[in-house]
Here is the input.
Amino acid sequence: MVVQVVVLLYWLHVMCALVLADVWKAQLEPNMDAVVSSCVVLPCTFKYPGQHQPSARMRGIWHKENKKTEFIYHEDSLKILDDFKSRTKLVGNMDKLNCSLEIDAVKSHDNGPFCFRVELERDDKDKFSFVDNCVSVKLIGKNEDILKPKLHYKQSVEEGVPAVYKCYVSHTCPSHHPTLTWNHTEKNVLVSYKYMTHGTWEVESILTITPKKEDDHSAITCTVRYHGGLEASTTVSIFVKEQVTLNHILIPSITGLGVSVLFAGMCFFVVKRYKKRIQELQSRNDNGMWSRLSRMSRRFRSGRNSGEQVRRDQRKNKVCNMPGKEPFSKPRIPSPKSQPKSYSGHDYDDEYNKSADLNIYGNV
Ligand SMILES: *[C@@H]1O[C@H](CO)[C@@H](O)[C@H](O)[C@H]1NC(C)=O
Here is the structure.
């Protein structure tokens, strides 16, 4: 049962296809734009009933609507209206049922509507005019805004970073594509052509420039030149942002670093000299058995202290170890992992040294 239904549906489908194919039918774009003095290709495909004919036995004709004898295209050029003589060409391949017509050097009154007609050289001399599918042409004249190319771009670009400008126009003259040019001298331009829809094509030109500082506020112009000579341009301004280069970061940071290293060095030497002088003064004025004794006891107590630390402690003891001030001069255990702490240790030393000054001069 199911199989029979499927078979029936299949045959219905085949018969429908045959019936549909067996008619006079043409497919055209009812509305086309055309640039005056350029060309326009009116897309057209058609079907006819019965046996397939070689193109030699077929005659494709274009005529004005409702005037089947006013030919705008005919095999016999003598039959073509004077106004269209040598301006029309059947660019479609009739063998492939393609009846596309090119009208060149379009004039401002070429608005149509234009219709296709086919005559078959068969026994019954079939002829058919597809007057239900004619083409109206809208003409675009000089100075019309629609002629201008469109520009896609980023207004604000970065210095030294390649920027892309895309200029494009749509048109209906694929046998002579319009040309797009830039006011820029760089040769980095990519051109492409693509078919859009409804007989319309697009030409696109992509310009890649690497902006320099001098290009700031400069103009980028894309000019289109249509076949036949009409021209139109679009201009945009670009704004070039200065690039933040490595130098912009490196120079200030190196300068800053240099200054701080210099400053630190100066501090170091000042402190060193200052301490040396205190030591000198201290050794001259050293009279106490006290400090010598406490120095020895400290060595006993902090065996693990580094020599440096011990020496520092010694210095401290020399100046600070007054009778009765024992708890004040406990040895500090160095913290090796934190440099800043040892810095504060220096401050601490300085504190001591200041008080040492007082002591020293008190001793004098
Ligand atoms: C018909 O011919 C034109 C011109 O050669 C071509 O651009 C178009 O693609 C053809 N159409 C089809 C459906 O093949």
